[in-house]
Write a structure and sequence with these properties.
Layout (H helix, E strand, L loop, with lengths): L6 E2 L4 E2 L6 E2 L3 E2 L4 E2 L4 E2 L4 E2 L4 E2 L4 E2 L3 E3 L4 E2 L4 E2 L25 E3 L4 E2 L4 E2 L4 E2 L4 E2 L4 E2 L7 E4 L4 E5 H20 L1
Parallel strand pairs: 1-4, 2-5, 3-6, 4-7, 5-8, 6-9, 7-10, 8-11, 10-13, 11-14, 12-15, 13-16, 14-17, 15-18, 17-19
Antiparallel strand pairs: 19-20
Length: 174
């Protein structure tokens, strides 16, 4: 279901509108959204992003342009979730603090990663599949594990791949 209050940018694609739950959010132009995705109110997704199937973007999340979110990525916006208050009464929106999370330009988040509230994932960074991110991720960092730790730099990996690809091309030209 796509609620009437969703703002979809030009050329944004929701592959199966009957298999998503989008409400009160803004989706930038050219962004692609897979099946079984939920994007809650007050979430902003930039342009030219890819949100893969089964992912959950809760209130308080901002995704900048050109971000990749893999399958089954979960964002969390409350560090101390509870159904009830100390007096036993059901909690309402006024009973907890919504933590904000930002995913910066051109970051990539691997499948089944969990992103805790209140963090920033840096520009051009890479979060490994299954990682649990509980602190800020620096620009260009590669993080993996539980909890996520910096294990590399995207710029070094891209240079290494470019060098390997160049060697293969050179070998084929011989």
């Amino acid at each position: 279901m796509i609620s009437a209050d969703v703002q979809l940018g030009e050329r944004a694609v929701v592959f199966h509108p009957d298999l998503v739950n989008l409400y009160g959010c803004r989706i930038g132009g050219g962004t692609r959204i897979g099946s079984f995705v939920e994007i809650q109110k007050d979430v902003e997704v930039g342009s030219n992003c890819k949100i893969s199937s089964h992912s959950f973007l809760c209130s308080g999340v901002t995704v900048e342009d050109s971000v990749f979110i893999g399958h089954g990525v979960m964002f969390i916006n409350d560090m101390y979730p509870s159904a009830v208050n100390p007096d036993g009464g059901l909690q309402t929106a006024d009973d907890w603090e919504c933590l904000t999370t930002t995913v910066r330009h051109n970051a990539s988040i691997g499948s089944n990663a969990t992103i805790l509230g209140g963090v920033t994932i840096g520009r051009h960074s890479l979060v490994g599949a299954g990682a649990v991110v509980n602190r800020d991720v620096p620009d260009y960092a590669i993080v993996a594990g539980v909890p996520a730790q910096v294990i590399g730099d995207v710029r070094e990996k891209k240079l290494s791949v470019a060098q390997e690809t160049g060697a293969v091309v050179a070998a084929r030209l011989r």
